């Protein structure tokens, strides 16, 4: 994950994946734990939906995307 690398380099990051893919969110959390990044937040987001969790996030300077397109077929 590019976000894990950014965090290891000292950036303050928030990792996210689809709220509809809990296994992916668990894998993100596990990647943080394995890389000694226990304080990196991992949140589930759904495109087009604004959740209270999303609204509570701090302002960010950069949005780094990876694997942002998904076609299940």
TrEMBL record:
BP GO terms, sorted: methylation
Keywords: Methyltransferase, S-adenosyl-L-methionine, Transferase
Lineage top rank: taxon: Eukaryota
A GO term, aspect molecular function: methyltransferase activity
UniProt cross-references to InterPro entries, sorted A to Z: Methyltransf_16, SAM-dependent_MTases_sf
Pfam families registered for this protein in UniProt: Methyltransf_16
Entry's family note: Belongs to the methyltransferase superfamily. METTL23 family.
Designated name of the protein: Uncharacterized protein
Species, as recorded: Cirrhinus mrigala (Mrigala)
Organism lineage: Eukaryota, Metazoa, Chordata, Craniata, Vertebrata
């Amino acid at each position: 994950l590019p976000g894990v690398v950014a965090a290891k380099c000292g950036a303050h990051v928030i990792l996210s994946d689809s709220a509809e893919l809990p296994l992916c969110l668990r894998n993100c959390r596990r990647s943080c734990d394995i890389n000694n990044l226990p304080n990196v937040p991992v949140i589930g987001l759904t495109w087009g939906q604004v959740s209270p969790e999303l609204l509570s996030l701090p302002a960010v300077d950069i949005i780094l995307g990876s694997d942002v397109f998904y076609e299940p077929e």
